Amino acid sequence: MALTFRRSWSDPDLDQYRDTVVRFIEEHMLPGDEAARHRGHVGHDLWRQAGQTGLLCTDIPEPWGGAGGDFRHEAVFYEEMARRSLTGLNASVHTIVAHYLLNHGTDAQRQRYLPRLASGECVGAIAMTEPGTGSDLQGIRTRAERSGAGYVIHGSKTFISNGFLAGLVLVVAKTDPTQGARGLSIFIVDTADCPGYHVGRVLDKMGLKAQDTSELFFDGVAVGPEQLLGGREGQGFFQLMADLPYERLIIGVTALAAMEGAYQATLDYVRERKAFGQPIADFQNTRFKLAEIATEITVGRAFIDRCVEDLVAGRLDTATASMAKLWGSEAQGRVVDACVQLFGGYGYMNEYLVARMYTDARIQRIYGGTSEIMKEVIARAL
Ligand SMILES: Cc1cc2nc3c(=O)[nH]c(=O)nc-3n(C[C@H](O)[C@H](O)[C@H](O)COP(=O)(O)OP(=O)(O)OC[C@H]3O[C@@H](n4cnc5c(N)ncnc54)[C@H](O)[C@@H]3O)c2cc1C
User: Fold this and answer.
1) Catalytic residue among 79, 80, 233, 247
2) Catalytic residue at 226?
3) What is the pLDDT of residues 268-310, one digit of tens each?
4) Are 325 and 374 in contact (CB under 8 A)?
5) Domain limits at 221?
6) Closest Cα to residue 332, out of 247, 268, 253?
7) Is the CB of 137 under 6 A from ligand 1?
8) Pair type for strands 123-127 and 166-174
9) Within a domain: residue 3?
């Protein structure tokens, strides 16, 4: 069965936009992916090209340099990359950064940074995780101490997506260590000519090979008061919590698109490949596995599509978004694993899409909040 990849939230304009996205991917991303996987990053040119084509910050309003669309436009770009296992250009983290500025920044901060993010001139990253803490955000040690009218930041961050290429890093730091959640603030660090800011290693990961995930060091980075997100201390935790449904749904959306891509590639492969004188596709086991996968994708599509519609309507809650992240990432792991099995030894070779998808899938259950943390969030809402 060839699944139609129709979304309930799509329309003719979005279909046309999808064609533009696919053209961009085929012309600008696929040809350079192998080199980017070896290098560990896609380079600034690709970001600028994506910006020029209008693919970045599509749901940021036009007055701030965005395209004035909504989450569906973002979803189209993420889906088409995920279906092809193209992970180098982490447009989702980039957009999340833009949303922090849009939702919590001052007008001056929006004016200064959003157009640069939308054009791809500046790559965005968000630095929460540290060597000593990830899930437990309140355990961070990076601190921002008052110095004159501004602050000085000391600390180190790790596993930061887009970290190597980032021109703008949102840094979560403690402004008051005695205040728990109320002691966290977010600072906008402009990385150009920034004394005390150092990019460490581009980390060698199991998957997401083309994506720059880095360590970042802040050794006495001085920032002015205008670099405090929203201009008020102690708002960091609440700013982070407010944007969680958006971030978690992105992972659900990409998980399902990757499943669709793996399914399609596997369907094509098993029809070609022969064993014992017949196509692999004709074995009952193959047909049953593919039937299970097709069912899982179809059921998942109904749920993820509803979440997309709810997000666009402004009514997606954190627990449901966490279900999308939990279910999507776990299902992606199951489906891609089954697809690798149907490819046999070729499924283990990196030149095959499903092999890359297998290693790319594993992180989906960890970043953006682990599956265990998702269950905590969902359980609290029961
Ligand atoms: C490729 C990649 C990209 C990333 N990008 C970014 C980024 O851009 N910015 C950023 O800030 N971070 C980023 N991260 C970090 C990521 O968000 C964290 O790794 C993740 O949140 C888990 O934190 P941790 O690694 O410290 O694990 P830990 O928090 O140490 O967790 C270890 C284990 O303990 C479990 N655990 C922890 N607390 C509980 C609990 N309460 N109940 C039950 N089990 C629990 C976890 O589920 C996990 O299984 C990235 C990580 C990777 C690998």
Assistant:
1) 247
2) no
3) 999 999 999 999 999 999 999 999 999 999 999 999 999 999 9
4) yes
5) 124-234
6) 253
7) no
8) parallel
9) no
C-alpha of residue 133 to centroid of ligand 1, in Å: 8
How much is the mean pLDDT over the chain?
96
Residues 145 and 86 in one domain: no
Query: Within this chain, do residues 154 and 257 fall inside the same structural domain, yes or no?
Result: no
Q: Which range has the worst mean pLDDT, 59-63, 205-209, 240-244?
A: 240-244
Domain count, the chain: 3
Cα of 293 vs centre of ligand 1, distance in Å, is 28
Q: Which atom of ligand 1 is nearest to the CA of 211?
A: 1
How many Å lie between the centroid of ligand 1 and the Cα of residue 134? 5
To test the ligand 1 pocket, which listed residue (184, 189, 366, 378) has its Cβ within 8 A of the most ligand atoms?
A: 366
Tell me: the pLDDT tens digits for 77-117? Answer: 999 999 999 999 999 999 999 999 999 999 999 999 999 99
pLDDT tens track for 9-62: 999 999 999 999 999 999 999 999 999 999 999 999 999 999 999 999 999 999
